[in-house]
């Protein structure tokens, strides 16, 4: 024995004697400046460092990417707007007309987006005014859950492209229990949800097992599993006695039974259902998982450096499989809440509605942190809800919203571009000892 | 050609890697640039070679100011560089590598290989090398590959030659040959800059010595200075190069390795019938030139590589065939060879890394939940105890210097109840101050009655730290000898020639 170790299992100090106290031991996220042995800096230096951290950090890039994408969207709105086109034909005679037309086109477009996504200031009553917000949250629900699924996989070093397949598997599992089983109130819903979540987990778990034990790349495997799920579900939907509604020729399931439907949160006038609460619960659970649990510690260690994780006795294969199971379960929540909450009249093979892929965007924008995913998912939910209003009210193609979403990803993938355009500090400008020692030693 | 650097300053953000450095190298002189890792030696040479642009200062060749925008300019001006990591294409022949970048062509763009061959032979003859111009580089021993690098530089009429840590990959014998080559180049009138942190080599060939510390020139020394004087200049304080330790007091506990065999994925036997015993309270150093099976031996001992035969028992318990987790739980401390790759998660904080292999159960995890308060208290304690220089326990470990990173690994491993310590290259890339500390902790571990296996390619470290030295060559044990064995004998053993006289331990 080298040194007496009070921390060894069953050692002299009872670990309970030092309970975790977030107030005295802030987590790294809460206070990156670092507690105890940090040298005392003067206030201004600390302030500068904090400002630098905020603007050199990834969050600034996320926000900047959204801003730039919205700006690019404005340009497209201006170009496609008839008023602007008209005014620009005599641009050199009266340039202010063109600029005014641009201003009104962009302004009214984003006003419509806001009206459709957050607050309808033209509504007569409160219910009408907040309806857009509840609609955004409803759209956000599956994005939150699926985004978490992608994010958890990301943190474990896995690129989960299989959101579509996992959602379809979950929808099939939850849907089948939802319309076929006859169970009492409460139990039916619970069982349908468990079935859906389990189906999503298993579907992703296949990719995890193949990755861990054969080295197959999870990107390829999850993409192929998307196809398998899609065509598999298509078959089930087209086959009487399986998922297809009896007496129907359409590839569609029967409606869910009332006992299996997620209750609406704000009464029948609003579509927002209890799936949103499930998604919020998932956010908290994932936060705990990643930041407080040993399992999540293993995920992150394997994701950051599998070699070191292995040397530290972490079973990398097992961790890979479990991470995919958890990721699939989370995406499964998205599929489950879709069929049990949003589309309760029976679903078809397009039930995933591209959410499995949007989830990747959401996870990227949210920097794979639970709260970031929540924020990004609500933003994208707002885009979805507001996009149709924008199209209806201002005759602006909804595709512009999709382009804006894609531009966000593009900008996030190129942080130096965002930093350069917005004049944010580049991270390498920061005195990082390791980087420079390495250069010096090179 | 005379090389002169005047007031070279290079900054990376707030860090000043080179601070007003003046250096003069005369033709026919070997000028040694001595300093710890990270002192700024390589940065300076990259400025000279045109890879970096200096923020201030100028480079003069024969009193003419030069402007280099890239290595091409530097080469054209007559500067040649022999890098630590060879810039050769393994599947090309020697002649092809030498002509690469300034190919001579015949009509219709055909390569004039004959000209390249002639050139290689001519230079090789001039300096007494033996290099076959048609040999594939990948088939050549490391020492010869390095000569190809030198020929490459000379074929471009380099009059100023920079050797960047050239001996890191060489056996002691190859090092001696390189020294001889450097002397011949010097006699041929070349100005040579020799970058190293190994004191013995400096004293052997240098005509002048300039010591760099933290980006500044801290002094000049003569080749007659002692190791202690040079080391003191490098670290700014006196360091003990020998590890203070008493005679070993063997205990009953022991690691027994019998007939251990490891095969790599291609089927080649990389550890071949290795047997040895390490008693508690003793340090066995596994020495040898990099790549002779030491890495695989250490990994097999701790369950990171499957063994294809033999047995490893610790106090009578078989370790082979167990998972890393089980080996750790059996009380084995692992200091991996490559700390950034295998020892630490760079993006994790110091505190997280200090418990990296202890989150599977109490005390740092209970009911699947990390005990963060306990962990942070533990981390703060270890940072203090191991003198880990960090802004705080929440600083990502990747931002620490090499020495401090290694202290994190060591702190983590030594704070468990150990029954065996396996440390691979514990001081590689670590500053002299930390080396001393790390050596002391390893000796303390030994004195606590734990068997210790250290894998090291540094002869100095092997001799200073070991009670006995096991030398490996091509996967086999050449011999196990006392640490008092003369260096030249150890050097020969590292080249595969067994010790003939004297008793083996």
Describe this structure in words.
The complex is a heterodimer of chains A (442) and B (505). With 442 residues, chain A is mainly α. Chain A has one domain (60-84, 94-413): Orthogonal Bundle (ABC transporter involved in vitamin B12 uptake, BtuC), CATH 1.10.3470. In chain A, 67% of the residues lie in helices and 0% in strands. Chain A has 17 helices and no strands. Chain A has helices at residues 43-56, 58-80, 82-88, 95-117, 126-155, 163-180, 187-214, 218-238, 275-292, 294-304, 306-311, 316-342, 355-365, 370-394, 399-413, 415-422, 433-441. In chain A, helix 9 (275-292) packs across helix 10. The longest helix of chain A is centred in the first third of the chain and has 30 residues, at 126-155. The radius of gyration of chain A is 25 Å and the shape is globular. The two termini of chain A are 39 Å apart. Mean pLDDT of chain A is 82; it is low at 1-6, 8-41 and 429-442. The longest helix of chain B is centred in the middle third of the chain and has 16 residues, at 172-187. In chain B, strand 11 and strand 12 (269-280) form a beta hairpin. By secondary structure, chain B is α/β, with parallel strands linked by helices. In chain B, helix 4 (113-127) crosses helix 5 and helix 14 packs parallel to helix 15. Chain B contains 17 helices and 22 strands. In chain B, strands 6-7-8-3-9-10 form a six-stranded mixed sheet, with helices on both faces. Residues 501-505 of chain B have low confidence and may be disordered. Chain B is 32% helix and 26% strand. The interface between A and B is large, with 60 and 78 residues.
């Amino acid at each position: 024995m080298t040194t007496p170790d009070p921390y060894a299992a069953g050692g002299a100090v009872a670990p309970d004697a030092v309970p975790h106290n977030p107030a005295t031991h802030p987590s790294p996220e809460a206070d990156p400046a670092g507690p105890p042995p940090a040298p005392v800096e003067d206030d201004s230096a600390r302030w500068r460092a904090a400002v630098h951290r905020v603007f050199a950090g990834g969050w600034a890039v996320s926000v900047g990417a959204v801003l730039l994408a919205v700006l690019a969207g404005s340009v497209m709105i201006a170009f496609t707007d008839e008023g602007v086109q008209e005014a620009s034909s005599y641009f050199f005679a009266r340039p202010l007309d063109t600029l005014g037309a641009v201003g009104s086109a962009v302004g009214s477009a984003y006003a419509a987006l806001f009206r459709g996504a957050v607050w309808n200031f033209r509504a007569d009553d409160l219910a009408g005014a907040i309806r857009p917000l509840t609609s955004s949250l409803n759209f956000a629900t599956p994005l939150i859950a699926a985004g978490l699924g992608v994010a958890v996989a990301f943190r474990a070093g896995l690129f989960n492209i299989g959101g579509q397949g996992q959602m379809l598997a979950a929808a099939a599992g939850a849907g089948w229990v939802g319309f076929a089983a006859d169970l009492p109130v409460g139990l039916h819903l619970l069982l349908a949800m468990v079935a859906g979540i389990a189906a999503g987990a298993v579907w992703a778990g296949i990719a995890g097992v193949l990755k861990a034990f054969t080295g197959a790349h999870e990107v390829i495997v999850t993409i192929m599993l998307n196809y398998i799920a899609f065509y598999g579900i298509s078959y089930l939907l087209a086959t009487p006695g399986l998922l297809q509604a009896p007496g129907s020729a359409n590839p569609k399931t029967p409606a869910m039974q009332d006992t299996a439907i997620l209750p609406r949160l704000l009464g029948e006038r609003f579509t927002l259902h209890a799936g949103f609460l499930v998604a919020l619960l998932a956010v908290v659970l994932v936060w705990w998982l990643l930041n407080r649990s040993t399992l999540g510690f293993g995920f992150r260690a394997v994701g950051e450096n599998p070699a070191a994780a292995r040397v530290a006795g972490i079973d990398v294969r097992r961790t890979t499989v479990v991470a995919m199971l958890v990721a699939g379960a989370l995406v499964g929540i998205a599929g489950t809440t879709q069929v049990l909450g949003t589309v309760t009249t029976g679903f078809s093979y397009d039930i995933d509605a591209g959410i499995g892929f949007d989830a990747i965007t959401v996870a990227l924008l949210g920097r794979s942190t639970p709260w970031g995913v929540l924020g990004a998912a609500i933003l994208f939910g707002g885009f979805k809800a507001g996009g149709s209003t924008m199209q209806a009210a201002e005759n602006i193609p909804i595709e512009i919203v999709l382009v804006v979403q894609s531009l966000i990803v593009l900008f996030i993938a190129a942080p130096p571009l965002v930093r350069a355009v917005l004049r944010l500090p580049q991270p390498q400008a920061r005195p990082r000892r390791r980087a420079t020692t390495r250069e010096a030693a090179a | 050609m005379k090389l002169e650097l005047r007031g070279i300053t290079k900054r990376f953000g707030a860090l000043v890697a080179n601070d007003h450095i003046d250096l003069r190298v005369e033709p026919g002189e070997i000028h040694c640039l001595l300093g710890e890792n990270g002192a700024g030696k390589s940065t300076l040479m990259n400025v000279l070679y045109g890879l970096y642009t200096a923020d201030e200062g100028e480079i003069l060749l024969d009193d003419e100011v030069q402007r280099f925008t890239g290595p091409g300019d530097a080469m054209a001006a007559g500067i040649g560089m022999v890098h630590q990591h060879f810039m050769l294409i393994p599947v090309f022949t020697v002649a092809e590598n030498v002509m690469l970048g300034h190919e001579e062509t015949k009509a219709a763009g055909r390569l004039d290989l004959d000209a390249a061959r002639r050139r290689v032979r001519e230079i090789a003859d001039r300096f007494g090398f033996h290099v076959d111009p048609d040999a594939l580089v990948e088939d050549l021993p490391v020492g010869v590959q390095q000569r190809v690098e030198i020929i490459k530089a000379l074929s471009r009429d380099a009059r100023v030659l920079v050797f960047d840590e050239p001996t890191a990959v060489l056996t002691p014998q190859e090092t001696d040959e390189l020294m001889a080559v450097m002397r011949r180049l010097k006699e041929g009138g070349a100005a040579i800059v020799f970058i190293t942190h190994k004191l013995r080599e400096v004293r052997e060939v240098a005509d002048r010595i300039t010591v760099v510390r933290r980006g500044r020139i801290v002094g000049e020394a003569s080749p007659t200075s002692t190791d202690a004087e040079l080391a003191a200049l490098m670290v700014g304080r006196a360091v003990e190069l020998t590890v203070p330790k008493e005679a070993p007091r063997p205990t009953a506990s022991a690691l027994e390795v019998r007939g251990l065999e490891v095969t790599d994925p291609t089927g080649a036997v990389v550890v071949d019938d290795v047997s040895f015993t390490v008693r508690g309270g003793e340090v066995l150093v596994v020495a040898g030139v990099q790549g002779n099976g030491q890495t695989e031996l250490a990994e097999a001992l701790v369950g990171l590589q499957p063994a294809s035969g033999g047995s490893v028992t610790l106090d009578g318990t078989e370790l082979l065939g167990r998972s890393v987790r089980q080996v750790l739980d059996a009380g084995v401390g692992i200091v991996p060879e490559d700390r950034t790759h295998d020892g630490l998660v760079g993006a994790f904080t110091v505190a997280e890394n200090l418990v990296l292999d202890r989150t599977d159960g109490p005390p740092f995890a209970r009911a699947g939940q990390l005990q963060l308060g306990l962990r942070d208290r533990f981390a703060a304690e270890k940072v203090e105890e191991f003198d880990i220089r960090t802004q705080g326990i929440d600083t990502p470990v990747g931002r620490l210097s090499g020495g401090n990173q290694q202290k994190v690994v060591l702190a983590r491993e030594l704070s468990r109840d150990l029954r065996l310590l396996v440390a691979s290259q514990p001081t590689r890339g670590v500053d002299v101050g930390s080396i001393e500390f790390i050596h002391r902790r390893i000796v303390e571990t030994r004195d606590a009655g734990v068997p210790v296996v250290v894998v090291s390619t540094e002869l100095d470290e092997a001799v200073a730290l070991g009670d006995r030295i096991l030398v490996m060559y091509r996967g086999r044990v050449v011999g196990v000898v006392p640490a008092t064995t003369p260096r030249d004998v150890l050097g020969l053993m590292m080249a595969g020639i067994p010790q003939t006289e004297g008793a083996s331990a």
